[in-house]
Amino acid sequence: MYAFEIERPASIADAASAMKTDEAQALGGGQTLIPTLKQRLAMPSVLVSLTGIGEMKGVCMSDAGEVCIGGATTHATVAREAAAHYPGLAGLASRIGDPAVRNRGTIGGSLANNDPAACYPAAALGSGATIITNSRSIAADDYFQGMFTTALEEGEIITEVRFPVPEKSHYQKFVQPASRFALVGVFVAKYADGVRVAVTGASEEGVHRWTEAENALSGNFSADAISELSVSADGMISDLHGSPEYRAHLVKVMTGRAVSAAS
């Protein structure tokens, strides 16, 4: 580790002000950032902790019927407090990492980092969520822009995430046992106007939608609807845990399981 200053703002306005310097880095639960600092892959001179901002914590329902989650809300809190409103999302949160990670990591930190194998990006994209920052609202379809890349600008902070509640939903994750990340994860959500299918852990482009499955499932929400579909291995991640072909196979398998569980 190396020497740095830490700011502990008590409001979103104070946090935004502290982030105006080029030397500052926002700190949520620190589950990714702290190991990165230890390896000196990032070396900000100022960390702006978001964990003391009360207005960025908690789960509630909006008048529009959306589940609204503060950016500094931990995974464990989402798993507990979203269960009555959005079981598919709560189930996803309950399986992130281990208890230590779930009680420290935050939804805002996960979405800001946008790890290509993280779970929350699949939930946000699969739900058609809206990411709220200290300066604007960003649709999930516009927010995710590739591995570790998002639409966030310098100094921008995720203050809230709003999830439209589907009729049915489920998340299936094929776990990489050492990291607890998704080797492949699929979030399926059925809305009145159609089905959304978001895939994480599989592709070099990061989280993405499987539109062919969405079209098939919108007409027939059953695992049989995707039985004739195939997933190309082109652009899939290849590493010691799985080949591109294996990951392509898992995308279809996890999608079918998610649909069956949601039904």
From TrEMBL:
Q: Which InterPro entries match?
A: CO_DH_flav_C, CO_DH_flav_C_dom_sf, Diverse_Substr_Oxidored, FAD-bd_PCMH, FAD-bd_PCMH-like_sf, FAD-bd_PCMH_sub1, FAD-bd_PCMH_sub2, Mopterin_DH_FAD-bd
The record's GO molecular-function terms, alphabetically, read: FAD binding; oxidoreductase activity
* SMART domains attached to this UniProt entry: CO_deh_flav_C
One Pfam entry for this protein is FAD_binding_5
Please list the residue ranges annotated as the FAD-binding PCMH-type domain. Answer: 1-168
Keywords associated with the record: FAD, Flavoprotein, Oxidoreductase
Q: What is this protein called?
A: Carbon-monoxide dehydrogenase medium subunit
